[in-house]
Amino acid sequence: MVTSYEFLRAESEKFQVKGRWYYVILDEAQKIKNSESLVHKAVMGLSAEHRLILSGTPMQNSLQELWSLFNFVQPGLLGQLDFFEHQFCKTIIKGGYTRATAVEVETSKQCLGELREIIQGHILRRTKKQVKIECDLPERNEYIVFCNLTQAQLTLYEKYLLECREFLDSDYNRPEALGILNNLRKICNHPFMYFAYHLSDKATGFKMRKIDANPTYQLYRETRLVAEKEFEDKRLIEATAACRHWQLSGKLRVLVSFLYDWREKDPTTKVLVFSQTRKILDILERLCQEHVFSFLRMDGEVSLKERIELIRRFNQEP
User: Rounded CA gap, 82 and 87, in Å?
Assistant: First the structure.
């Protein structure tokens, strides 16, 4: 039987028949990374002789996610969650702090080595090198390009970070800490992304003081007012405002420079651009329209049928 996580969660009782399943295989197993989620509880209720999980990202944000995966595939291997957090999580995380002592760093390394030794016998890992050999892929040149912040980004980043430190008052475990990190990431992508969040109803926790005095914020408000007269869709308004001042983003400066350079050298060059958020894709879409770059867009809102057609067009059309 092949089913989805959503259906399994909704009809979990129908699947919980003792001794029925010989093998349970979970694809995209990061779906069960939250041990408190209904999906995780549903799969834990499955009785099976063998369990296998497949994942390209077994751990994204915390070691607790790793525990959740092993709690399904090999219950008891890492102990109970409170034991795992005390024995491994706290020690390993503490050693990664910039203010960690030499003893804490060394203890963290030893603890990490112990954890790796426990789990490595239960993991089959397919490396990029193996994939290249098996699929006969061409050679790939990999470059890491550092994108400096623009002056507008740097000024906003430093002011926000300074106020954050005062707000947190050295308590980095406060619930607002993760939101603050996300806002810093928004600033690094484009300052307008943070301003949009600052004004939205979703803005919670810490917010900058005296933001009206920031000249980039004033520019955002003016540009957004113009865009509101042209469009009604909120996402399109925000993307248009950011696109019209793409020079404020260090990342977009580098990307646009590359795109123009590649098109000049070979107009048939095809480029894949990945992003973690749809808001960035919105900005990139508007950027391609403004600079007359032909493009195709595929994200989570695109159906499977449409994805296949987009992939075909990308591979076959010039």
Answer: 8
Average pLDDT over residues 2-23: 84
Mutual angle of helices 176-189 and 151-168, in 10-degree steps: 170
The pLDDT tens digits of the residues spanning 226-278 come to: 999 999 999 999 999 999 999 999 999 999 999 999 999 999 999 999 998 99
- Answer yes or no: are the C-beta atoms of 26 and 53 closer than 8 Å: yes
The owner of tokens 């409170």 is 82
CA distance between the termini of the chain: 41
What is residue 175's predicted lDDT score, i.e. its pLDDT?
Answer: 66
DSSP 137: P
Indicate if the alpha-carbon torsion angle 71, 74, 79, 80 is positive or negative.
positive
> What contacts 183, CB < 8 A, 6 or more positions away?
160, 194, 197
Q: Are residues 209 and 237 in the same domain?
A: yes
Q: Return the sign of the alpha-carbon dihedral for residues 96, 98, 104, 107.
A: positive
Q: In this structure, is residue 291 part of a structural domain?
A: yes
Query: 298: closest CA among 317, 316, 273?
Result: 273
Residue 141 inside a domain? The answer is no
- Pair 90, 193 in one domain: no
Helix (H, G, I), strand (E, B) or coil at 186: helix
Encode pLDDT of 59-109 as tens digits: 777 889 999 999 999 999 999 999 999 889 989 988 888 888 999 999 999
| Residue matched to tokens 């042209």 | 230
Q: What is the DSSP letter of 192?
A: H
Is residue 180 scored above 60 in pLDDT?
yes
Q: Are residues 21 and 117 in the same domain?
A: yes
Report yes or no on 219 lying in a domain.
yes
For the chain, the domain total comes to: 3
pLDDT at 204 exceeding the cut of 70: no
